[in-house]
Amino acid sequence: MNESLRSACETALRYPMTPHSRRHGPCGYTDDRAYKPWLRDEFSFRCVYCLSRERWRPDGQEDFAVDHITPQSADPSLAHEYDNLSYACCSCNRNRQDAVLPFDLSREPIAQHVEFAPDGTAEALSAEGRLLIRICHLNRPLLVEFRRRLQSLLELLASRGTTDDERLLRELLGYPSDLPDLASKRPPRGNTRPSGIAQSSFEQRRSGRLPEVY
Ligand SMILES: [Zn+2]
Protein backbone atom coordinates (compact mmCIF):
# COMPACT_ATOMS: atom_id res chain seq x y z
CA MET A 1 0.00 0.00 0.00
CA ASN A 2 1.39 3.40 -0.92
CA GLU A 3 2.30 5.97 1.71
CA SER A 4 -0.44 8.49 0.81
CA LEU A 5 -3.16 5.84 1.23
CA ARG A 6 -1.74 4.69 4.55
CA SER A 7 -1.43 8.26 5.79
CA ALA A 8 -5.02 9.09 4.73
CA CYS A 9 -6.25 6.09 6.75
CA GLU A 10 -4.39 7.27 9.82
CA THR A 11 -5.53 10.88 9.63
CA ALA A 12 -9.16 10.50 8.44
CA LEU A 13 -10.43 11.00 12.00
CA ARG A 14 -7.81 13.48 13.16
CA TYR A 15 -8.38 17.22 13.18
CA PRO A 16 -5.86 19.32 11.21
CA MET A 17 -2.97 20.36 13.49
CA THR A 18 -2.84 23.96 12.29
CA PRO A 19 -5.53 26.67 12.33
CA HIS A 20 -7.41 26.96 9.07
CA SER A 21 -5.91 29.52 6.69
CA ARG A 22 -8.43 30.75 4.10
CA ARG A 23 -7.66 30.24 0.43
CA HIS A 24 -10.81 31.77 -1.04
CA GLY A 25 -12.41 35.18 -0.54
CA PRO A 26 -15.68 35.60 -2.49
CA CYS A 27 -17.60 38.74 -1.55
CA GLY A 28 -21.06 40.18 -1.89
CA TYR A 29 -23.46 37.25 -2.02
CA THR A 30 -26.60 37.93 -0.02
CA ASP A 31 -27.80 34.33 -0.13
CA ASP A 32 -25.63 32.03 1.99
CA ARG A 33 -26.22 29.14 -0.38
CA ALA A 34 -24.12 30.93 -3.00
CA TYR A 35 -21.11 30.59 -0.69
CA LYS A 36 -21.54 26.84 -0.33
CA PRO A 37 -19.40 25.75 -3.34
CA TRP A 38 -16.56 27.92 -2.02
CA LEU A 39 -16.92 26.52 1.49
CA ARG A 40 -17.05 22.92 0.26
CA ASP A 41 -13.66 23.38 -1.36
CA GLU A 42 -12.30 25.58 1.46
CA PHE A 43 -12.99 22.93 4.10
CA SER A 44 -12.18 19.85 2.00
CA PHE A 45 -15.76 18.61 1.68
CA ARG A 46 -16.07 17.71 5.36
CA CYS A 47 -17.65 19.03 8.52
CA VAL A 48 -15.26 21.25 10.49
CA TYR A 49 -16.72 19.98 13.78
CA CYS A 50 -17.11 16.19 13.43
CA LEU A 51 -14.93 15.56 10.32
CA SER A 52 -17.74 13.69 8.54
CA ARG A 53 -17.13 13.82 4.80
CA GLU A 54 -19.55 14.28 1.95
CA ARG A 55 -18.29 10.92 0.68
CA TRP A 56 -19.52 9.22 3.87
CA ARG A 57 -23.09 10.49 3.51
CA PRO A 58 -25.63 8.94 1.14
CA ASP A 59 -26.80 12.40 0.08
CA GLY A 60 -23.34 13.96 -0.17
CA GLN A 61 -23.33 17.75 -0.01
CA GLU A 62 -27.10 17.81 0.61
CA ASP A 63 -26.29 16.76 4.18
CA PHE A 64 -24.09 19.83 4.71
CA ALA A 65 -24.85 23.43 5.61
CA VAL A 66 -23.25 26.86 5.67
CA ASP A 67 -22.32 27.44 9.32
CA HIS A 68 -21.88 30.90 10.90
CA ILE A 69 -18.78 31.01 13.13
CA THR A 70 -20.10 34.09 14.94
CA PRO A 71 -23.84 33.40 15.06
CA GLN A 72 -26.12 35.74 13.14
CA SER A 73 -27.93 36.50 16.40
CA ALA A 74 -24.66 37.73 17.98
CA ASP A 75 -23.57 39.92 15.04
CA PRO A 76 -25.97 40.27 12.08
CA SER A 77 -23.37 42.33 10.15
CA LEU A 78 -21.24 39.17 9.72
CA ALA A 79 -24.10 37.08 8.34
CA HIS A 80 -22.84 37.19 4.76
CA GLU A 81 -19.09 37.67 5.35
CA TYR A 82 -17.16 34.76 3.87
CA ASP A 83 -14.51 34.67 6.61
CA ASN A 84 -17.28 34.18 9.16
CA LEU A 85 -18.65 31.12 7.37
CA SER A 86 -17.61 27.51 7.70
CA TYR A 87 -18.84 24.14 6.48
CA ALA A 88 -20.68 21.78 8.79
CA CYS A 89 -22.82 18.68 8.47
CA CYS A 90 -26.50 19.43 9.03
CA SER A 91 -26.47 17.56 12.36
CA CYS A 92 -23.61 19.59 13.89
CA ASN A 93 -25.04 22.79 12.42
CA ARG A 94 -28.48 22.07 13.87
CA ASN A 95 -27.15 20.98 17.26
CA ARG A 96 -24.98 24.06 17.56
CA GLN A 97 -27.82 26.48 16.73
CA ASP A 98 -26.75 29.93 17.95
CA ALA A 99 -24.10 28.83 20.43
CA VAL A 100 -20.95 30.95 20.53
CA LEU A 101 -17.83 28.82 19.93
CA PRO A 102 -15.46 28.55 22.91
CA PHE A 103 -12.37 29.56 20.89
CA ASP A 104 -11.38 31.23 17.63
CA LEU A 105 -11.10 28.57 14.89
CA SER A 106 -8.90 30.84 12.79
CA ARG A 107 -6.31 31.02 15.60
CA GLU A 108 -6.53 27.68 17.37
CA PRO A 109 -7.02 24.32 15.64
CA ILE A 110 -9.71 22.06 17.09
CA ALA A 111 -6.90 19.49 17.44
CA GLN A 112 -5.68 21.46 20.47
CA HIS A 113 -8.98 20.89 22.22
CA VAL A 114 -10.58 17.64 21.00
CA GLU A 115 -9.43 14.27 19.70
CA PHE A 116 -11.18 11.04 18.80
CA ALA A 117 -10.39 7.88 20.78
CA PRO A 118 -10.12 4.49 19.00
CA ASP A 119 -13.61 3.60 20.30
CA GLY A 120 -15.05 6.60 18.45
CA THR A 121 -15.54 8.83 21.50
CA ALA A 122 -14.67 12.51 21.23
CA GLU A 123 -12.31 13.32 24.11
CA ALA A 124 -11.75 16.82 25.44
CA LEU A 125 -8.18 18.04 25.83
CA SER A 126 -9.26 21.32 27.46
CA ALA A 127 -12.22 23.08 29.02
CA GLU A 128 -12.90 24.67 25.62
CA GLY A 129 -12.90 21.21 24.05
CA ARG A 130 -15.45 19.99 26.61
CA LEU A 131 -17.67 22.89 25.68
CA LEU A 132 -17.31 22.29 21.93
CA ILE A 133 -18.19 18.60 22.37
CA ARG A 134 -21.30 19.63 24.30
CA ILE A 135 -22.32 22.42 21.89
CA CYS A 136 -22.08 20.26 18.74
CA HIS A 137 -23.12 16.99 20.45
CA LEU A 138 -19.93 15.35 19.18
CA ASN A 139 -20.62 12.32 21.36
CA ARG A 140 -24.10 11.66 20.04
CA PRO A 141 -24.40 7.85 20.22
CA LEU A 142 -24.97 7.14 16.52
CA LEU A 143 -22.02 9.33 15.54
CA VAL A 144 -19.70 7.62 18.08
CA GLU A 145 -20.85 4.25 16.72
CA PHE A 146 -20.24 5.39 13.14
CA ARG A 147 -16.70 6.57 13.97
CA ARG A 148 -15.88 3.31 15.75
CA ARG A 149 -17.12 1.26 12.77
CA LEU A 150 -15.30 3.45 10.26
CA GLN A 151 -12.06 3.27 12.24
CA SER A 152 -12.29 -0.54 12.37
CA LEU A 153 -13.03 -0.74 8.65
CA LEU A 154 -10.10 1.53 7.71
CA GLU A 155 -7.74 -0.49 9.92
CA LEU A 156 -8.95 -3.79 8.45
CA LEU A 157 -8.64 -2.65 4.83
CA ALA A 158 -5.22 -1.10 5.47
CA SER A 159 -3.89 -4.20 7.22
CA ARG A 160 -5.05 -6.59 4.45
CA GLY A 161 -4.14 -4.24 1.62
CA THR A 162 -5.38 -6.35 -1.30
CA THR A 163 -6.18 -4.64 -4.60
CA ASP A 164 -9.89 -4.65 -3.69
CA ASP A 165 -9.14 -3.25 -0.22
CA GLU A 166 -7.16 -0.40 -1.76
CA ARG A 167 -9.96 0.33 -4.20
CA LEU A 168 -12.43 0.56 -1.29
CA LEU A 169 -10.07 2.83 0.62
CA ARG A 170 -9.77 5.15 -2.38
CA GLU A 171 -13.56 5.34 -2.52
CA LEU A 172 -13.84 6.07 1.20
CA LEU A 173 -11.03 8.59 1.36
CA GLY A 174 -11.13 10.19 -2.08
CA TYR A 175 -12.60 13.53 -3.13
CA PRO A 176 -16.25 13.70 -4.18
CA SER A 177 -16.90 13.36 -7.90
CA ASP A 178 -18.85 16.65 -8.11
CA LEU A 179 -16.05 19.14 -7.38
CA PRO A 180 -17.16 22.78 -7.79
CA ASP A 181 -15.72 24.79 -10.69
CA LEU A 182 -14.97 28.00 -8.78
CA ALA A 183 -13.32 29.74 -11.76
CA SER A 184 -16.76 29.95 -13.36
CA LYS A 185 -18.25 31.80 -10.37
CA ARG A 186 -18.68 35.56 -10.38
CA PRO A 187 -19.11 36.81 -6.78
CA PRO A 188 -20.99 40.17 -6.85
CA ARG A 189 -18.16 42.07 -5.13
CA GLY A 190 -15.22 40.06 -6.40
CA ASN A 191 -12.77 37.74 -4.72
CA THR A 192 -10.15 38.96 -2.23
CA ARG A 193 -8.05 35.81 -2.68
CA PRO A 194 -8.19 35.03 -6.43
CA SER A 195 -4.96 32.99 -6.31
CA GLY A 196 -6.89 30.34 -4.34
CA ILE A 197 -8.75 29.29 -7.47
CA ALA A 198 -5.66 27.59 -8.91
CA GLN A 199 -5.39 25.61 -5.66
CA SER A 200 -9.03 24.51 -5.71
CA SER A 201 -9.69 20.78 -5.93
CA PHE A 202 -11.41 21.18 -9.32
CA GLU A 203 -8.39 22.92 -10.86
CA GLN A 204 -5.98 20.48 -9.22
CA ARG A 205 -7.91 17.57 -10.65
CA ARG A 206 -8.00 19.18 -14.08
CA SER A 207 -4.22 19.57 -14.08
CA GLY A 208 -3.60 16.13 -12.59
CA ARG A 209 -2.34 17.49 -9.24
CA LEU A 210 -5.21 16.40 -6.99
CA PRO A 211 -4.15 13.69 -4.52
CA GLU A 212 -6.06 10.45 -4.86
CA VAL A 213 -7.02 10.46 -1.17
CA TYR A 214 -6.88 12.77 1.83
ZN1 LIG B 1 -20.60 17.41 11.76
Number of helices: 7
Total strands: 4
Going by helix content, strand content and strand pairing, the class is mainly alpha
Average pLDDT level: 96
- Rounded radius of gyration (Å): 17 Å
What is the CA-CA span between the terminal residues?
A: 15 Å
Number of domains: 1
Largest sheet: 2 strands, antiparallel
Q: Segments where pLDDT lies below 50 for 5+ residues? A: none
The distinct bound ligands, ions and cofactors come out as: zinc ion
Q: For the largest beta sheet, what order do the strands appear in spatially?
A: 1-2
> What is the helix/strand order?
HHEEHEEHHHH
Beta-strand percentage? 5-15%
The coarse silhouette is: globular
Helix content: 25-40%
Keywords:
two-stranded antiparallel ribbon, 7 helices, 4 strands, binds zinc ion
Description:
- This protein has 214 residues and is mainly alpha-helical.
- The chain has one domain.
- It contains seven helices and four strands, in the order H-H-E-E-H-E-E-H-H-H-H.
- The strands form two sheets. The protein has a two-stranded antiparallel sheet with strand order 1-2.
- Helix 1 packs antiparallel against helix 5.
- The radius of gyration is 17 Å and the shape is globular.
- The two termini are 15 Å apart.
- The chain binds zinc ion.
